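LAB NOTEBOOK - FOLDING QUEUE
OPERATOR: T.R.
BATCH SIZE: 2
PURPOSE: Compare the predicted structure-token outputs for two unrelated chains run back to back under identical settings.
PRIORITY: normal
REVIEWER: second-year student, initials M.K.

ITEM 1
FIELD SEQUENCE / FIELD STRUCTURE:
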Amino acid sequence: MEMAGTVVMIVGAGRGIGRAAAEMFADAGADLVLASRNEAELSELEWKLERKGASVASVPTDATDAASVTRLVAEAERRFGRIDTLIYAAGIGVLKPFAETTEEEFQRLMLTNVGGAFNICKAVLPLMEKQKHGRIIALPGILGRAPMAQAAAYCASKYALTGMLKSIALEYKRAGVGVSLLHLGGVNSTFWDSITMRVQRDKMLTVTAAARAVFFAATQEGEGVLNEIVLQPESHQL
């Protein structure tokens, strides 16, 4: 079990890529801190992973609420004493023409996709700095690297996430903290359940393939850091 003794925090663990990654890390022997707004999904996942022998702390968390995030990190430190790897897999999507996008939708995208990551990093980085090591993995997706029509507000949130984390990487590299950004193409997850845009979900990446990329970024040996990964479906390569 290659990650035995490693503490991995996954924000957005209740479903999709976060959930699939949690199962992979559990199989590899990692200790897990799982966070999600959906308490029922979180409890079910904790039960499933503990039955497989994993050590799991699940904490219902709203990443957009700084006090909620503070409680999450405090519980992680109380239970395991440290956080080696942080995975920010939370996020929401709005894909529609710019003229039809409301201010409320724009603000909600920025609050969750960027503000949530800001709160989590603010809470976790002091601990990683004290440890003198840590890794942050975020999923800005391909729209945090390349624009797309009918995605102006969503792209804005993802480009902001990319910029913020690249700046964090520069500030904290001497503290032993590495940052990896995963620019994934379309992933066939529950993300698309509420999207009205017509897409071919059967040609997208699977959730398992996306989670493998997360696991790959987290398990690089030595001092190397995968700063950015671009993973696209075969049918839609850059």
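ITEM 2
FIELD SEQUENCE / FIELD STRUCTURE:
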Amino acid sequence: MVRHSVADLGPDASMDQICEATGTSKTVLYRYFGDRAGLVDDMGKWAMKVITQQLDRAATPDMSPREALTHMITAFVDLASSRPHVYRFCDRGVTNQTGQQTFFDSIAQLLCARMNFTQPEQYMWARGALGFVRACTDEWLTNPTDPHTFATHLSTWLWKSAPATNDVEGKQS
């Protein structure tokens, strides 16, 4: 119910607005989530679960690293295009996370696992790729076109810089 309220109200929805939209008292909402940060954290976990499930459904034993990258980007873009307010709400919250394991650490680790990346430079690339996808998706959401075409463009651009294709100095491997 809370996720649907954020989808309707927008990413700047206050706890008061969410309570009113869900018909829930602030006491109940705060007891369940603790505070707004807890709500954002919970929604971030939900977003991570959605992305992971989409990847798991698409995964095959013989999936190439490029296919894994494309599926990851497609899952991210699908979430943003189908629920733009929820995406923005989660993105703002998880961007401000502190601590050892953030939402984007989890996604970068998942991407590395799916692409068979094990080196520190490859992890740095994965984190950078996430920043690229997020920035492009934010811009794309201002005037969205076909999500599949957009995700394909991102995948193509990123693949050209992937450590699986080029070593750290940029030489073909």
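REVIEWER COMMENT (ITEM 2): Residues 36-58 form the longest helix (23 residues).
FOLLOW-UP: none requested
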